[in-house]
Every structure is written in C-alpha cells, then in structure tokens.
Amino acid sequence: MPLLLLALLITLGLALVLGLVLWYLKRKRRQRLAAESFRPRLRLSIEESELFGLGAGSPNAPYYLVLDTETFDAIDPEMPQEAWSPSRIVALSWQLTDRAGQAIKEESHTLRQAGTMQHEAVRIHGISNEQMQQGEAPLPVLHKLMQDLEEAEIVVAHNAWFHLSTLTAELQAHGLDTSTLEGKSYICTMEWGRDLGCKIGGDGRKLYPRLDELFGFLYFGRLAVPIRYRSKTLRDVRLVAACLRRMSLPVAE
C-alpha cells in the first residue's frame, strides 16, 4: 500500500510539473504575440516608397553622383584590396543629385558581356545570363555616365573603393579616359556608417554596416528593415541617395 501511494504521489507531482510548464509556455507565447501586435510591420518598396521617389526632379545644380555597379564575377566583399582583380560590369546605375541629395536624374542599365556568369554571381545580383545577353552594349552607357560625371563634384557609393576601381577597369577595357573619374572626390557611406557606430560587434568594435543596415539605422533606428526591389543595382543607388539625404555629410576624400 505505501508503494502504491508513493507511485500515485509521484504521478500527481509529474502531472503538476508538466501542467506548470505548459502554462508557462502558453503565457510566454501570448506575451510574444501581444508584443508583436504592437510592433510596426515595416516593409518598404524601392519602386513605391516616397523615401526613394524621384518626384519631378530637383531644379538645382548637380553636385553628387551616386553610383553602383554589379559584376560578372562573385567577389568577396571582405577581400583585401591587394588581392582584388577587376571584373566586368553587368549592371550600372547612377543618380545625379543636388547638394541636398535630391535627385535630378537617374539611370539604370544592364550591360551585355561575353561569357557565362557563375551561379554565385547571379545569386548576388539577380541578373540571369539571359538578361545579361539581352542587355545594352557597354560603351554607349559608359559615355552617358561620363557625361553626367562631368557635372558632378563628388562621387558617392557604398564601398566606394570597390565600385570606383571596378568602373575604372571597365573604362580602361573600352579605351576610355579615366582622368575625370580619378579627379573626383568621393564619399563612402560604408566607411561613414562604421564611423557613425551604427553596427557594433560583440567585442565592442565598430563594424562596417551593409547598405540596408545603414539605411535602417538612419531612418528607423534599427538595422533590420525589409526592402522589396526588382533591381539590386537600382536598389543600392536609391538607398545610398536616401542615406546621403539623411546623414550629416562626411568630408569627401
């Protein structure tokens, strides 16, 4: 009889513990759902949000040229500069803005290049080999870019060294003069974002933010902001221009 009573008490005790655990888990789930119901659900569209819109275009004089390139090869963003080798440009976008970062004009082009891109490169920028082959001849697009560059005082890009080096190599490959590009001052929003301290590592070091992280920090005070887009290179140009309008402008190099 004592053994039967002991077994019964143990069973009741286990049932009580299990009930308490289930009650606690349900309570935590209700709290999480309640918190999420008050959290703003933010999802922006590069094509539709007023934060990125061109409007009627600024009537002011050009000052900045915001630039982005996408390349034929998949390039590690952590690659040291001394190990870098040029890759052909498959997408090129830019925006000419006034001193306040308000858009004057915008261009976005897919460039036709020979060969077949690797899967990793396609995964990064979303341009298929078929789309690349249907793109524009690079030379007329480069001429158009250089005409707009003549009007700008400062070039702006996220990871500016990479984009400027890539563009310089593309110009040289087509026999074009690079002195205008090399003579421009530039602002790197990636470097500026690190100096701002918007992304901190576990050891307290300031880290380079991704472009979408810098944008989220400047506009919404958080790094994770979902953004819908159809063209990555156009997305990046509009994000850089939006950051340019928001930040206290760093000194151009």
Strand order of the largest sheet: 4-3-2-5-6
Low-confidence stretches: 33-40
Assign the CATH topology of the largest domain: Nucleotidyltransferase, domain 5
How many DSSP H or I helices? Answer: 9
- Estimated radius of gyration: 26 Å
Please give the CATH architecture of the largest domain: 2-Layer Sandwich
Oligomer state of the chains in this structure: single chain
The CATH top-level class label of the largest domain: Alpha Beta
The H-and-E topology, N to C, reads as: HEEEEHHHEHHEHHEH
Calculate the mean pLDDT score and round it: 86
End-to-end CA span = 88 Å
The major beta sheet can be summarized as:
5 strands, mixed
Please state the overall shape, judged from the principal axes of the Cα atoms. elongated
Describe this structure in words.
By secondary structure, the protein is of the alpha/beta class. The chain has two domains: 39 residues; 183 residues, Ribonuclease H-like superfamily/Ribonuclease H (Nucleotidyltransferase, domain 5, 2-Layer Sandwich), CATH 3.30.420. The strands form two sheets. A five-stranded mixed sheet has the order 4-3-2-5-6, with helices on both faces. Strand 3 and strand 4 form a beta hairpin. It is elongated, with a radius of gyration of 26 Å. The N and C termini lie far apart (88 Å).
